[in-house]
Amino acid sequence: MSSTPTEESIVTLKAEALDQLANAADEASVESWRVEYMGRRGRLTGILRNLGSLDPDQRRAIGAAANRLKGELESALDERAAEIKRSGSSQPKDAIDVTLPGRRTRRGGLHPSTQIIREMLDAFNEMGFQTVEGNEVELERYNFDMLNIPADHPARDMQDTIWIDRERASEDGGVLLRTQTSGMQPRIMEKQDPPVRIVSPGKCFRFEATDATHEWQFHQVEGLAVDEGLSFADLKGTLYEFARRIFGADRKVRFRCDFFPFVEPGVDMSIDWNGRWVEILGAGMVHPRVLRNVGYDPEKYTGFAFGVGPERVAMLKYGIEDIRHFFGNDLRFLTQF
Ligand code: FA5
User: Fold this and answer.
1) Which of 88-92, 105-109, 229-233 has the least mean pLDDT?
2) Is residue 284 part of a domain?
3) What spacing in Å lies between the alpha carbon of 194 and ligand 1's midpoint?
4) 39 and 132 housed in the same domain
5) Is the pLDDT of residue 26 over 70?
6) Same domain for 159 and 41
7) What is the pTM of this model?
8) With a 6 A CB cut-off, is 218 part of the ligand 1 pocket?
9) What is the mean predicted confidence (pLDDT) over 70-84?
10) Does the beta carbon of 236 sit less than 6 angstroms from any atom of ligand 1?
11) Is the CB of 184 under 6 A from ligand 1?
12) Which helix or strand (DSSP H or E) is residue 334 part of?
């Protein structure tokens, strides 16, 4: 700008500059605004450069006004640039109320079932059992047939099954949500030769009416040991030791005869709860037919297996009255652990 500066030209320039700056919507427009008004060849720079052509009185008055405008435009520029930066972030401008007092961040935690499962696995791991993860969607063959529970066996009715595909034409039978973790027994034994000593935790599902000690989804921790010379004393010793580690030495434990087609003999184990017995697991010596199904020689090898319900264990350990709390998703319950 080479024309002689006047007071009007400064007033006009200010109005135009501020108007244009208010309409600059992004960083690039702000930068071209800066170049247009305040760059080396900018309009305000031109005015300042031409002050020398004025007589001294005018130079003083117009010079002061031009310098004032320079200061004003610089702060307007900074403010607009900061505004654009703020609105460009994902937070709306006033999303954070900085006047609110500070609050503690709420930390998440492990689900009580996960916590008790880990504690149980630690106890078994220390006794030499290795943890193996299993699958929740299971084949009929592993959930039932390989465990000596043929299609017409009444034991299938004890575990009301949630089927995914019941009519599937395959020698593995249908597909289901596993009713027990015991399917992991043949799955593991098919893959490896004895000795076997594993525990396998996971979710099970049964289409059954719920009450204070029965859920339609719950966990089990399966255990299996197969070797030469294992006896019922090994089973009992292992489960006693497990109970001692989880519940302490004073808690009363009861074994009773029970029936499961894949063990012989079969037992269940209950824990004393204020004078009442609550069953936490089924167990037994692996049935010779199950060993034969996976190609093991039952004359040479024996084994024991067990299936513990961690929610029942947690109920007894922490005095939880109703198993339905576990999957009720109520934070008042879940945050107590
Ligand atoms: C079984 O599921 C056998 N597979 C256990 C077994 C394994 C026996 C290996 C022999 C050898 P049962 O249905 O009793 O057995 O379940 C075992 C444990 O799972 C129960 O003691 C209980 O702790 C838990 N459980 C079973 N059904 C439910 C349910 N509806 N809700 C919560 N926990 C359950």
Assistant:
1) 88-92
2) yes
3) 25
4) no
5) yes
6) no
7) 0.73
8) yes
9) 91
10) no
11) no
12) helix 331-334
Look at residues 72, 87, 102 and tell me which one is the last residue of a structural domain.
Answer: 87
**190 contact partners, CB below 8 Å, separation of at least 6:** 294, 295
Assess whether the C-beta atom of 179 lies below 6 angstroms from ligand 1: no
pLDDT tens-digit profile of 318-336? 999 999 999 999 999 998 8
Average pLDDT score, the chain? 92
Say how many Å lie between the CA of residue 70 and the centre of ligand 1. 83
Ligand 1: does its nearest atom lie under 6 Å from the Cβ of 271?
no
**pLDDT at 94 (0 to 100):** 65
CB 304 within 8 A of CB 284: yes
94 part of a folded domain: no
User: What is the DSSP annotation of 16-63?
Assistant: HHHHHHHH--SHHHHHHHHHHHHSTT-HHHHHHHGGGGS-HHHHHHHH
Ligand 1 pocket test, candidate residues 184, 206, 216, 218, most atoms within 8 A of CB: 218
Q: Which amino acid is at 31?
A: E
End-to-end CA distance of the chain: 75
- The whole domain housing 161 covers 112-334
Is the same domain home to 58 and 141? no
Q: Is residue 92 part of a domain?
A: no
Q: Which atom of ligand 1 is nearest to the CA of 323?
A: 32
Q: Total domain count for the chain?
A: 2
